[in-house]
Amino acid sequence: MDRLKKGKMKILVTGGGGFLGKGMAETLAKNGHHLRLMGRSPFETPHERFQGDVSVLDDVRRALDGMDAVVINHMAPREPNAYLTPEICFKINVTGTANVLFAAQELGINKVVIISSTSPQPEDPKDWLSTIPLPAKGLYGLTKACQETLGQFYVREHGMQIAMLRVGYVVNADEMKDKYGRVIGERNALDVDRRDIGEVARLCLEQENAGLQVFSVMSTHESMEPWGVQYTVDTLKWVPRYDFDALPADQKT
């Protein structure tokens, strides 16, 4: 409790060994927060590492032991077979998220961020941000909608404080490459640096009595009004650090 009063938290990040998890860790660790990164396979990190499977409840319980907050960031691999049937993607994305939320509530951990996704561009960003779950598109989108429904349930039934971040296309802006190592040559409205996502997650976790919130997270000025990112900026006093303005605009957007 004293640690929380001083603003210092112990934060678990699931999917911590992946492209987004490692990037988020850079900004989540600000202000003296301690990170424990969870992943299925061994990975290098300067932070505490926990090897385990989110689809196994006992693994999740052990990973959350002693934590104050959690960022739900795990995702089935974007490989062709992972989203052809529900078997793999639902086991990881949905059962894994259900396990994390169940164990967090069991252990009295109330601060949660869920890394969600985007859907087709909203006609009205205000309506889009108030719509939970987000409209699903394909099995990937369906698993993300299920994650949001789970989050909504735990806020309503258990009073947890959950922020759902609908993130755009995740990039490492230093190298202008995505998670697959592909070079990004044009600026798309949905581009977002992984460290900007970590900063928004940090700001969400540092709030008091926030309840249920939905935020769009992109790093470009083109996303501010059409995707509702201005609401994120205004509410959290967040300024994207990586704006991608050095890249020519994608003519298709």
Give a description of the structure.
Helix content is 36%, strand content 19%. It is of the alpha/beta class and 253 residues long. The radius of gyration is 17 Å and the shape is globular. The strands form 2 sheets. It has a 7-stranded parallel β-sheet with strand order 3-2-1-4-5-6-10, sandwiched between helices. Strands 8-7-9 form a 3-stranded mixed β-sheet. It has helices at residues 2-5, 19-28, 57-64, 86-106, 125-130, 138-158, 194-205, 229-236, and strands spanning 10-14, 34-39, 48-51, 69-72, 111-116, 161-167, 169-172, 177-178, 191-193, 212-217. The termini are far apart. Helix 2 (19-28) crosses helix 7 (194-205) and helix 3 crosses helix 4 (86-106). It has a single domain (2-236), classed as NAD(P)-binding Rossmann-like Domain (Rossmann fold). The longest helix has 21 residues, at 86-106. Mean pLDDT is 92; it is low at 1-5.
Question: Would you spell out the secondary-structure blueprint of this structure?
Answer:
Layout: H1 2-5, E1 10-14, H2 19-28, E2 34-39, E3 48-51, H3 57-64, E4 69-72, H4 86-106, E5 111-116, H5 125-130, H6 138-158, E6 161-167, E7 169-172, E8 177-178, E9 191-193, H7 194-205, E10 212-217, H8 229-236
Parallel strand pairs: 1-2, 1-4, 2-3, 4-5, 5-6, 6-10, 7-9
Antiparallel strand pairs: 7-8
Helix pairs in contact: 2-7, 3-4, 4-6
